[in-house]
Specification:
By secondary structure, this protein is α/β, with parallel strands linked by helices. 44% of the residues lie in helices and 17% in strands. It has a seven-stranded mixed sheet, sandwiched between helices. Strand 8, helix 9 and strand 9 form a beta-alpha-beta unit. It starts with a helix and ends in an 8-residue tail after the last strand.
């Protein structure tokens, strides 16, 4: 083949390839915006729920979520379409959380995600949801860093660690605590909560007599706890604040009581579980714990939710059930206000939300996606149960 013929055949080949590509592109359906394929087909509005379903069966999160979905669908759905939930288990690990987030991001029917339970899983997942244009409602993640990344479609449904720590310090001061020791888990949650408590306590003139951390991977009976409590016996403490997880906190309080340290104990929201009460037994009686919800809250919305939940499941709802319920209903509210399932339109509607109240309290968001300041609720362990501490702190 001569050079001229070779150039001719190459040109003919490239021209044919170009024609083929144009033809294929013309025949292919253009990719629709997120959620619109189902909308055109009259299918459901799909949201996803990422949560450690298998490992957190004692929490009533799933029941609260499903109850909200069923109520919305019984009332006609969202934009006259049924609401469907795709459940994914993140196993409470960063690696699994990323995989779940990537899978949901690649599913163009998913318009919003409610999740995850842990802040350390929510942080990397949030970056993926933002990149792919998905509305992300974080029901239980409390790390302040989550809403500092500039994500415009991210909304937090609960308090940050800093808000909880500061308001628990306010509570300590009003109860006359003057010398407080802090015991916290050595991770982002524990440090943030402990720092906020200490900073606000000092503003009130409350002295932090000591501050000690613990390794979340330490075995039970760790010698470090024994040494800490031995030193605390001589500090003339008036209270202890714990920013940790239920198992270690319960063990710490039991050991403190055995040493005769009988001062009041306060804790962050992570302790508000049946596990903490059962593990601590009589030793944790009187512990005051921050919470986003309790079924004894006398607000009308909380009473209606509690009655309906109990009728349906034969159980009283916990804070996780209430947060899941509010997250679903808030998303439905945003879609209705936007008259669209387009994530950007829904996010704009949620940012503009005022006067909307869930069972956990009034909901309005800052530009960053945090709740506009709302007073936390508190429970106290009494007779082996978490009892609502009705001191007017729970807001409207």
């Amino acid at each position: 083949m001569t050079g001229t013929n070779l150039r001719y055949h190459r040109a003919a080949f490239h021209h044919g390839l170009l024609v083929l590509c144009v033809a294929v592109s013309a025949c292919r359906e253009p990719e629709l915006p997120r959620g619109q394929a189902q909308a055109q087909a009259g299918g459901p509005v799909t949201i996803a729920a990422a949560w450690p379903w298998e490992s957190r069966t004692t929490l009533l999160y799933g029941q609260g979520l499903q109850m909200a979905v069923d109520e919305i669908n019984a009332a006609g759905g969202v934009l006259e379409r049924p609401l469907a939930v795709l459940r994914e288990d993140d196993h409470e690990t960063v690696d699994r959380g990323r995989l779940v987030a990537q899978r949901l991001a690649q599913n163009n029917d998913v318009v919003a995600v409610i999740g995850h339970m842990q802040s350390y899983v929510s942080l990397p997942a949030a970056a993926i949801y933002d990149l792919f244009g998905i509305v992300h409602v974080a029901p239980t993640a409390t790390d302040p860093r989550l809403t500092r990344q500039g994500y415009r479609r991210l909304f937090r449904m609960t308090f940050t660690d800093r808000e909880t720590g500061a308001q628990m310090a306010d509570f300590a001061a009003t109860r006359g605590s003057r010398r407080v020791a802090i015991y916290y888990i050595r991770n982002a949650y524990g440090r943030s909560l402990a720092n906020a408590f200490e900073e606000r306590a000092l503003e009130h003139g409350v002295e932090i007599a000591d501050r000690q951390s613990y390794d979340p991977n330490a075995v039970a009976g760790d010698r470090a706890l024994t040494d800490i409590l031995a030193s605390w016996q001589d500090l003339n403490l008036s209270a202890i604040f714990i920013a940790g997880e239920p198992r270690e906190a319960a063990a710490m309080i039991r050991a403190a009581r055995e040493r005769g340290i009988d001062v009041p104990v306060m804790g962050g929201d992570a302790l508000g579980t049946p596990d903490f009460v059962s593990l601590g037994g009589r030793a944790v009686e009187g512990t005051v714990i921050a919470t986003a919800f309790h079924p004894a809250d006398e607000r009308e919305s909380a009473r209606r939710f509690t009655a309906a939940f109990r009728q349906r499941y034969g159980l009283l709802p916990d804070a996780s059930a209430a947060l899941a319920y509010d997250a679903v209903r808030l998303l439905a509210h945003g879609m209705s206000r936007a008259e669209s399932v387009d994530p950007d339109a829904v996010a704009a509607a949620l940012h503009a939300t005022t006067g909307w109240s869930g069972v956990t309290g009034p909901v309005a968001f800052t530009d960053e996606g945090d709740l506009v300041e709302r007073a936390i609720g508190r429970v106290v362990v009494r007779n082996g149960e978490l009892v609502w501490l009705d001191d007017g702190a729970a807001g409207n």
